[in-house]
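Problem statement: downstream parser choked on a complex file, so we are re-checking the raw output for the zinc ion run. The parser issue turned out to be on our end (a line-ending mismatch), but while we're here, posting the original submission so the record is complete.
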Amino acid sequence: MERIAKTVLRLVVLIGLTATIGGNLTDRALAGGPIVLTFPLECTLGVNCFVQNYVDHDPGAGYKDFHCGAMTYDGHDGTDFRLPSMDFQRKGIAVLAAASGTVLRVRDGVPDELMTSATKANSAGAECGNGVVIDHGDGWETQYCHMAKGSIIAKPNAKVKRGEPVGLIGLSGATMFPHLHLTVRHNGVVVDPMAPDLASDSCSDKAGSILFDSNWQKFEYQNRIVLNYGFVDGPLIMSDIEQGGLSTRQPKKESDALVAYVRVMGIETGDSQVFAVFGPDGESLSSRKFPAIDRPKAQNMLYIGVKRPNDGWKPGVYSALYTIVNNQQTKMSKWFYLQF
Ligand SMILES: [Zn+2]
């Protein structure tokens, strides 16, 4: 595992990331102005990585993100960029220095394991897991958490350049899904890189400034995101999706069931979900409407199944349609297919 991680990382370095990323950026928009951050991962937002949680802007026991939504949790002090499943993590996704600077601290050696209530105590005192802290000068610091054991190549006191790999996304410390937690601090105070000008106890759905260089990746607040979807040959649970490998459970001619599943992030109060499966002639095979939810959910998984007919599965293309409706308005829908 460690050797694979390092080999992948070396490849990433060889490809020459540093030659192109942010080459025309200075490290400050203006001398003494806010820092400009490059997207800290070798993946594409909205394609193979997604924001799962933003910084918490509720000073009390509740939680709200900068956009007044619920994509955070109480006390969350960073931005969580997640991968859809461990399948993506196993391929090796590099964590990149968000700006040039000097490495202050490094921790490695924390095992990669999905945290459960039973294993939560293991990460006490090392919640960040394997991590790196970089000092960018003028009081700016970035911290990178939950990296893969044995993958960290950043060295304390070494200089790093903007966009240079420092390690790989892992599953170390207090984490239940593969992601990079990025904390940004200025003079020791947490700054929300998505809303640096907003007070830590306020939120707004109006677009404001961000610290990320948005020429590099498209940063926009997004919820109701379908993270995973597909067909499998029987019932499944959330951790089956997280662990990946579901391509080995594709339905076959002899399968007893055909199960369509989705996992969605950031559904809102009042959202009702409709999920339906159609046969090769467009005939409805199964359909279910799930009641409106009464509070926002960071993640939600649904599946519906169809039993194999006595005369077997009809050949052709099966389809599934997942829809979110709120206040009689369709908020999003997703079609996906299976060819038999
Ligand atoms: Zn986090």
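For whoever reads this later: The helical segments are 2-15, 17-20, 86-91, 238-243.
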